[in-house]
Design goal:
Blueprint: H1 2-16, E1 21-23, H2 33-46, E2 50-52, E3 57-60, H3 77-80, E4 83-86
Length: about 90
């Protein structure tokens, strides 16, 4: 029984050491530099451990190879909200 309590105490200690982070609003209509700065500043004030961003997809304006996930070969519309065009 003592081993069980030691295990429970160890698990509870790990919970106290948990670090919480979240993703920044860096894409879509709310993904402005001002929004990122505001959220990051507030997160720091609240004691969050980390902030995460979504990577941008780069896609060509005139692709040489069609996208395999769509019938017409075009990049799906939801992807375009996180992508930056390049020529």
């Amino acid at each position: 029984m003592l081993r069980l309590w030691a295990l429970i105490a160890s698990l509870l200690q790990r919970c106290n050491d948990m670090r919480i982070g979240f993703a920044l609003p860096n894409i879509g209509p709310i993904g402005s530099p001002e929004a990122v700065a505001t959220v990051a500043t507030r997160a720091e004030a609240l004691g969050y451990d980390s902030l995460w961003t979504i990577e941008r997809l780069l896609y060509p304006v005139q692709p040489q190879t069609p996208h395999q996930g769509t019938p017409d070969g075009a990049l799906p519309e939801p992807y375009k909200g996180v992508a930056q065009r390049f020529a």
